[in-house]
Design goal:
about 425 residues, mainly alpha, two-stranded antiparallel sheet, 20 helices, flat, disordered N terminus, EC 2.7.7.41, phospholipid biosynthesis, membrane, transmembrane
Length: about 425
Amino acid sequence: LQESESENKLDGETASDSESKSEFGGSSTVPTSDDTPEVLNRALSNLSSRWKNWWVRGILTLAMITFFFIIIYLGPMVLMTIVMCVQIKCFHEIITIGYNVYHSYDLPWFRTLSWYFLLCVNYFFYGETVTDYFFTLVQREEPLRILSKYHRFISFALYLTGFCMFVLSLVKKHYRLQFYMFGWTHVTLLIVVTQSHLIIHNLFEGMIWFIVPISCVICNDIMAYMFGFFFGRTPLIKLSPKKTWEGFIGGFFSTVLFGLLLSYVMSGYRCFTCPVEFNNDTNSFTVDCEPSELFQLQEYNIPVVLQSVVGWKTVRMYPFQIHSIALSTFASLIGPFGGFFASGFKRAFKIKDFANTIPGHGGIMDRFDCQYLMATFVNVYIASFIRGPNPSKLIQQFLTLRPDQQLHIFNTLKAHLVDRGILGSLEDA
């Protein structure tokens, strides 16, 4: 009995967990199967399971990277659509786990309400984005203008409808379970929908703020796996027994170097560095601008200590490369904790992967657990250190005001510029 209890504790399950499991009905194990294509199974049949998994992961990783390059080439609209599809699939995988674990009571409206709340949250977030980035277009169309004006009230009314439906669906003897699943749905929405929305905001700041962070996470994941596979000896964390210190450290240095090189290449192209803006004349997205100082080569002095090592006194690089060091460091040191969090979640419910969508990799959520954490960091980083007032958005809002309001702002601004001596100097010139 003592051995059995100790095994349960090693798995992270306590007595209270066991009681909850019996109350909620049945075992919490959600089996997943490996859907490796038959062609790969035959080609790799002579290899050990370790090397077979290495080849399957490698081939599928190359396929996903190729797909990533294709959607980047197709432009921002396709990227936003893909982000939306990934968000929905991740939500589906997490909600399905909850449904499979606690399905025995056949809770009324659980799945319907979960998807309804997903619709409400997306309507709120994407409505805010449309109003912010497509302000002129929204003001030009009467239905859109009305929806924009009362957007938050409509969003709140939609959520209240779902809230009332949940209260009406409560069933005697299952109150605790139903509130548990209500919380499950809302935490899933917080993790998946909110952070996928931040990814789209990063994309509007410039494709480089979308591609470099995501690529750094991908690079760290690949290089940590490679270093761990060939050199790994020292376990890193109990939540992920296969993770090693060798893989963690090797992934860090590889990712920082990769981030510097990728940033250098991308900083020279306007299509990556310019903010994604909506052109009202052509009703399409544009990525053309005069590059900011972040993306203009500058000369930096190398510290004296390193001059004798590298043999240079100065180096020419883009300022964005310095920011890329912060991004790649976060992707290497903090980003993996998103994966550890997901590992703890899966261990809690005794499942190997969130789903079996991608052979050798698991579900979509298994590939994006670190990406969502990275997206939040990038958004906070841009807001804290990069983004400033946007003149084009201010002008768009100014033009929608009444004539008397526009004149008031004009006179106020004119008086301010005259007091500072700016307007007079401009007139003399």
